[in-house]
Design goal:
173 residues, mainly alpha, 63% helix, elongated, mitochondrion
Length: 173
C-alpha cells in the first residue's frame, strides 16, 4: 500500500460513542454467579491442570520414539536363565517387526516409482527392484517358513541348519 493515504477515497468510519454504564443500587446476580463459578469450579480445575502440565513437562515421554536397549541373543543366554530367554524373545519379535516394516517401505517405494514412471518402470525403477529383491531375500533367509507362531529359538535353529548346509556344500566343492 502507498504510504500516503487518500483520506477522501477511503473514509474512516465514525467511531462509536461508548454506552454509558447504568448504575443501579441493585447488584447484578450474574456477577455473583460468575464469581462463584470462577472460585468454586474454574480455579481448582485450572490449578490442577497447570500442576499436571508442569509435571508432564519435567518427565517427557515420547511413546513413538521408545528405544530399547539391545539384549543378549538367545545363543548368549545361560542355560536356565528364563529372564534372558524372555528378553531375547522380545528383542527378536521387535527385530522381526522392524524387518517387516523395512520390507513394506521398500515395497511402497517401488510401487510409487512404478506409478510415477509408467511404461518406463523397468528401466527407471531397476534400482528399487534390486533393493526389494535383496530385502525380501534377506527377510526370507531369516524368517521364512517360521510361520506366525515362530519364535527366537526356531529362528536360531533355522539359521544354524542353514549354516551347516552351507559348510557342507563348501566342503564338497
Amino acid at each position: 500500500m502507498p504510504e500516503d493515504h487518500d483520506w477522501e477515497a477511503y473514509k474512516v468510519p465514525p467511531t462509536r460513542t461508548p454506552v454509558s454504564e447504568r448504575t443501579t443500587s441493585v447488584p447484578n446476580p450474574v456477577n455473583y454467579f460468575q464469581t462463584a463459578f470462577n472460585y468454586v469450579l474454574d480455579t481448582p480445575v485450572t490449578l490442577v491442570r497447570e500442576w499436571i502440565e508442569k509435571w508432564q513437562n519435567k518427565n517427557k515421554f515420547y511413546y513413538y520414539h521408545q528405544k530399547f536397549r539391545r539384549v543378549p541373543d538367545l545363543s548368549e543366554c545361560l542355560e536356565g536363565d528364563y529372564l534372558c530367554y524372555y528378553e531375547a524373545e522380545a528383542q527378536w519379535r521387535r527385530d522381526r517387526m522392524v524387518d517387516q516394516e523395512i520390507v513394506e517401505i521398500v515395497r511402497e517405494r517401488l510401487a510409487a516409482c512404478k506409478q510415477r514412471e509408467g511404461p518406463n518402470e523397468f528401466q527407471n525403477c531397476a534400482k528399487e527392484m534390486e533393493l526389494l529383491a535383496q530385502v525380501t531375500k534377506a527377510y526370507q533367509d531369516r524368517y521364512g517358513e517360521l510361520g506366525y507362531h515362530g519364535n527366537a529359538r526356531t529362528c536360531l535353529m533355522k539359521q544354524k541348519h542353514r549354516m551347516m548346509e552351507e559348510r557342507k556344500a563348501a566342503q564338497e566343492n
